[in-house]
């Protein structure tokens, strides 16, 4: 039994490594893809955007379906779709087909992301935090290796090699999962409200699309409409006491979701911000800037398993407070010291350590606060908070860079906004500890 659990942990970690890896690595390949398909680089960006929008807009739907018909088959089908599209993408005959395949791959990634943590929480009830910590470390390995390994593969084997490697590794995940879980296992869940999930999907598309063009009036309108539609639907469904929302929204869990949203708003675009600063203001090459910025993801990768283990022993909400506090200190100190390289690196290390102590405990806190039959939906909603936070984080940076001059002023204003957002996240993390006692 233990061997089967460990096998699925390996399958989950492998799949969880791939979804962020390919999302980030493809950025390096965009110039090559642009040349091959004879499209403008701005148009080639849709190779990235189509994957992310597809993944973000379907993750909640896939989580709800997983709780309805079974988490295990959804995970395996998702990994299979991911592998199949990875192998097919290099053979796309035109750019439109390439985008279609990336959209389908995004759906497969949503099926993986929406179920992996839920299955881990089910099969490791006593060590949920540790299992999630290892899985989170795998995500950060993918995030860390995306630019460097992706660049190496594109330079020496062409952009096709990214997808061939991804498909091959995905096959390993499929094999491990087939050997470790029952893919015909019946779920305890109930049929979800698909009309509500459809509204959530559309509003997520609007938010993600609008954030990409937030600097324009139309982009801002689309972003606002998406946020209003999402919040309104969430409120209406909660007030109607329907199972889709009610079962995953205890007061403590809701605050944990909000903490995650605020965390990703505060942190996601920092790598873009500091990369631009190092290259534009300090004259570093892209490769050199990338090496400097490893000061953040390396602590995340190394400390996530330990943070997950501690989440099993201590109150996970307390650990999220520690993590958010370190993030506030890291971002706050960078407002004053980012011009000095050594202090910037120290700030990034603080942020990385804080993120490690936030991510796994925050997920563990959510999983401990929802019924077993809603694990996949809760995990998917947490993933949705991550995507929305990332979109809004990018919008803040884009707006500040376009509206403010000189460049350093836009950086400092963005950092102040991010620090304030992280402080709000710290407050919600503190409230989540005592929420059920009020």
Describe the structure.
There is one protein chain. This protein has three domains: 186 residues, MFS general substrate transporter like domains (Growth Hormone, Chain: A), CATH 1.20.1250.20; 48 residues; 192 residues, Growth Hormone, Chain: A, CATH 1.20.1250.20. It contains 18 helices and no strands. With 438 residues, it is mainly α.
SSE map:
Blueprint (H helix, E strand, L loop, with lengths): L1 H35 L4 H4 L1 H24 L1 H18 L6 H29 L4 H30 L2 H21 L13 H19 L4 H23 L3 H4 L4 H17 L2 H12 L4 H8 L3 H17 L2 H22 L3 H28 L6 H29 L3 H28 L4
Question: Short description, anyone?
Answer:
This protein has 18 helices and no strands.
Structure characteristics:
438 residues; mainly alpha; 3 domains; Growth Hormone, Chain: A
Low confidence ranges: none
Number of strands: 0
Q: What is the CATH architecture assignment of the largest domain?
A: Up-down Bundle
Tell me the radius of gyration: 20 Å
Order of helices and strands: HHHHHHHHHHHHHHHHHH
Cα separation of the termini: 41 Å
- Mean pLDDT over all positions: 83
Helix content: over 70%
Domain count: the total is: 3
**In terms of structural class, how would the helical and strand content be classed?**
mainly alpha
Give the full name of the CATH homologous superfamily of the largest domain. Answer: MFS general substrate transporter like domains
CATH class designation of the largest domain: Mainly Alpha
Tell me, briefly, the overall form. globular
What is the oligomer described by this structure? single chain
CATH fold-type name of the largest domain: Growth Hormone, Chain: A
Characterize the main sheet: none
């Amino acid at each position: 039994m233990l061997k089967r659990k460990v096998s699925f942990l390996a399958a989950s970690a492998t799949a969880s490594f791939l979804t962020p890896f390919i999302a980030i690595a493809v950025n390096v390949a965009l110039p090559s893809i642009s040349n091959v398909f004879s499209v403008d680089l701005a148009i080639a960006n849709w190779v990235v955007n189509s994957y992310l929008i597809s993944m973000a807009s379907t993750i909640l739907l896939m989580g709800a379906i997983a709780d309805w018909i079974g988490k295990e088959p959804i995970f395996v089908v998702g990994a299979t779709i991911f592998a199949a599209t990875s192998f097919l993408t290099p053979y796309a005959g035109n750019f439109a087909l390439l985008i279609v395949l990336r959209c389908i791959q995004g759906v497969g990634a949503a099926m993986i992301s929406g179920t992996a943590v839920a299955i881990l929480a089910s099969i490791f009830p006593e060590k949920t935090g540790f299992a999630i910590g290892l899985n989170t470390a795998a995500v950060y390995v993918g995030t860390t290796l995306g630019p460097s390994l992706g660049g190496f593969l594109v330079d020496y084997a062409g952009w096709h090699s990214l997808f061939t490697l991804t498909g091959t590794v995905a096959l390993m995940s499929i094999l491990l999962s087939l050997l470790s879980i029952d893919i015909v296992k019946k779920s305890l869940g109930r049929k979800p409200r698909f009309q509500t999930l459809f509204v959530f999907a559309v509003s997520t598309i609007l938010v993600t699309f609008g954030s990409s063009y937030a600097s324009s009036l139309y982009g801002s309108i689309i972003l606002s409409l998406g946020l209003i539609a999402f919040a309104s639907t969430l409120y209406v469904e909660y007030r109607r006491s329907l199972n889709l929302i009610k079962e995953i929204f205890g007061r403590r869990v809701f605050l944990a979701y909000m903490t995650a949203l605020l965390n990703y708003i505060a942190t996601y675009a920092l790598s873009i911000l500091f990369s631009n600063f190092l290259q534009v203001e300090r004259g570093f090459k892209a490769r050199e800037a990338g090496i400097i910025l490893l000061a953040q993801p390396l602590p995340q990768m190394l400390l996530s398993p330990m943070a997950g283990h501690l989440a099993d022993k201590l109150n996970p909400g307390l650990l999220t407070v520690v993590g958010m506090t370190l993030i506030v200190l890291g971002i706050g100190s960078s407002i004053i010291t980012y011009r000095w390289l050594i202090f910037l690196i120290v700030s990034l290390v603080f942020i990385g350590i804080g993120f490690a102590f936030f991510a796994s405990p925050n997920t563990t806190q959510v999983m401990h606060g929802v019924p077993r039959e809603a694990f996949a939906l809760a995990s998917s909603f947490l993933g949705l908070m991550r995507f929305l936070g990332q979109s809004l984080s990018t919008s803040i940076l884009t707006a500040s860079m376009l509206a403010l001059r000189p460049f350093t002023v836009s950086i400092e204003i963005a950092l102040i906004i991010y620090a304030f957002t992280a402080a709000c996240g710290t407050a919600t993390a503190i409230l989540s500890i005592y929420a059920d006692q009020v």
